[in-house]
Every structure is written in C-alpha cells, then in structure tokens.
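Anyone opening a protein record will find just a pair of labelled lines. The record below illustrates this layout.
***
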Amino acid sequence: MDYRRTYVRDLFKLAPRTQTSAYGWVKTRRDSKGISFVQLSDGSCFKDLQVVVNEGVLSADVLRQITTGACVRFDGEIVESPAAGQAVELLATGAEIYGAADPEKYPLQKKGATMEFLREISHLRVRGNTFGAVFRVRAQAAFAIHKFFYDRGFHYIHTPIITASDCEGAGAMFAVSTALESAGHENPAYQLKTKDPAEDFFGKPAFLTVSGQLEGETMALGLTNIYTFGPTFRAENSSTSRHLAEFWMVEPEMAFCDLEGNMNCAEEFLKEVIGHILENSAADLEFFNQRIEPELLKTLNHVVESPFERLTYTEAIKMLEGSGETFEYPVFWGADLQSEHERWLTEVKVGRPVILTDYPKEIKAFYMRENEDGKTVRAMDVLAPRIGEIIGGSQREERLDVLERKIQEFGLPLEPYWWYLDLRRYGSAPHAGFGLGFERLLMYVTGMKNIRDVIPYHRTPGNAEF
C-alpha cells in the first residue's frame, strides 16, 4: 500500500468500467433482495461512495464484518449509478477487512447525537458528516492563510511557546515549572520541590505564551514582514462557547507599516481566506448552510464582496448611545465593547464588516502606539456580522520613552522586557500587526456555535482529555 492511492473524492471523476480500489470506513450498510449497499467514506470529501455488493461476491464471513465503523478496502469497477444524487458507484468484486467494529458497541451510530456527546468521543467524531466537514474546512483555512502571506513575501516564523514575558499584561497564564512533581500513578498528588524560581528549570518564572507577538516584532524589525501561526494559551477560568485554554493564533507583523496599512492587510486577509474556503470547500459549506447556520453562504459572500466600514471607537460609541436599544452592558466612552454592541454595529447599523480604531488607552495593551491626544491608542478591531470581533491589532509603540512609561503604568516590571525595549534603542521603526484567533475564524466560516467543535481536542477548565 502507498499513500499515493486514489481517494474517494477522485473515484467520482473516473470513467465507468474503470477497475479501482476504495479505502475507508463504513458509514452504513443496507441489505435489499440479496444486494448490500454500503456507504463508504475516507474523509477526503463530503460525499460518500456507494459500494454495491451483489449476493455471492463476498464470503459470508467477510460480509458479516462489513458493519458501521468497520475499515474496509473494496476492489471493483466504477459503474454508472441509477440512484439520485450520484453519478457513479463502485460494483464490488472483492473486499479486505482491515479493522472490524462491533455494531452494537460502536459509539458513532447513524442516529443523531448531541454535540456534547460527540465531544466525549472526539477521537471518533471526525468520521461523521459534521466533523469531517469541520476539519476539512480547518485544513483549507490553514492552507489559505499560509498562501496569503507567502504570496506577499512574508516569512513564516516559529515563536516560542515557553516565555518569561506576559504579552498582554493580563496575568492569566499557565506556569511552566518542574518545582511541582507527581508522586506517581498510585498517588497522583503533587509535591513541592522548591519555592525559589532560581532553582526551577529555567531559573526564573516561565509560562505558556498567550501570544507570539512580541517575539514576532523582533523578527519583523529585521525581516520586514513576518507572520506566526501556532498554539497559544490562556488560563482564564472561562467555560463559555467562545473560549479555550489552548487555541491557535495567526499574527502578522509588518515593519514600516502604520494603522492604515494594518487595516488594509487585515481586510485583504479576511476576504482572501474566506474566498478560498468558498471556492475549495463548497460541499462542506453547503452542508453547514443547510444544517448548522441558515444563510451562512450569503453572509460569507457578503464579507468577500463588501468594502469594510471604518469608524473610530468614539464614532461607534455615539451610534450605540443614540441607537435606542436596551443593551445588557451599558454603553459609555471608555467601556470595552461587548459582543452585543459589535453585532449591532455590523448587523443593524452598518450591515457589513466594520473596522473600529483609536480605542481608549486604558482598555488596550501597553504596546499599542499612543495617539497625540494622550487618551487613545492606534488600535483596530475587525468586527464581522454574526460573531463580533474576529481580528484585533494595532500600530505598535516605537518610541522608547513612551513604551517604558506605558509598561510601568500597566504595573509591569521593565526588566523582563529589556530585549523588547532594545528594539526601540537600536534602529526603531514604525511597525504594526494584528492577531486572529484561528478557531474564531472557523466558527465564523462554518457556523458552528461552540469553539470546542472546531478544534480536534478542546482544552477547557476541568478538561484535558485525549
């Protein structure tokens, strides 16, 4: 066997009477008048391949093992199909069972199952229609992201997962330490080896990163345009449908770029990535449009085709205050906008994606460039209909004295950021960048309602299964 075999998606393109083999997992088997009809999937496309097994072609023992969940290779001939919705099917001449599955115990039955139950069998759920579609779209989205930046001359950088810096100044970080050790499987309680960070593995406090941005800036101020795409971590005790403890971030950084250029890049990026998915995942998106989120395709096409509206935070606050709406969270200048505010702006007021800029400095991170008014920073958030914020970014603070002051205002020590400050001491340059939560994007393009359902294995408070 070779990895360069024919996938199910390719079998639909073969001419009738072609001899071939089909590999995959049995979705269903139906018997009628001595003929077995098997729905076979290998995950390469949304559509299943129908395999027709005539009576007497396979031994009774082999046929008995062709049940839901079994892994099988069928040999046979591609023939025209009389069934509606499929041009061809495979007329089996032989089969090999790679792995049987007890039909009484196999967890992924044809009957409907809740999303909660399917998370409990995350190791199997990809074999079903919904999650097969989710993870094919995830793969296409990842490819589109890399292609977007490659086509524009960006360099792909792997920034550290373990860091001694708190990028956001939020404090909700996972510590990385060998000071705590397990007493063993029979007694899983932890025991403390030392309280002194100097005696720990790295000789100082270390954490799982919440962002690769700061390290990305060091690379941009030498390579000009870079991007990171990797796992990030937040230790927030949040169990909402929009939060994970481990998630993936896309973070470009661009030297010699200001807020305007940053907005242009973000808009082009979203449109091109979503456009690629619309073009290359049509069958999967049609399923989501029918079963998960009505008018999903209309929304996505609207994003690709519409110019993004650009407003300042102050303009948006005035619109919200004059809306006549009763929001759960009060609106006032200085408030951090909530999803309900962002959705009203995009869905009711403007009717298309919005880029908000120039937020109050108190509600944004220390590294964002301060405006001349001393009250706002050159931040930007891209808000999309149906989900709210999907991208956040800013022009970075390139002035050494201002950056030092802002770090201290945030109550952070200067010493851990010595290398970040060096970028402002030696050849500082205007630069900007943004971050996109990959799983948030996937929720948007699939219509899935819970972020746990667009990542293979979710990490949330109390859950680190698989």
Notes: DSSP finds 13 helices and 17 strands in the chain. Residues 41 and 48 are 5 Å apart (CA to CA). The longest helix spans residues 129-151. The radius of gyration is 26 Å.
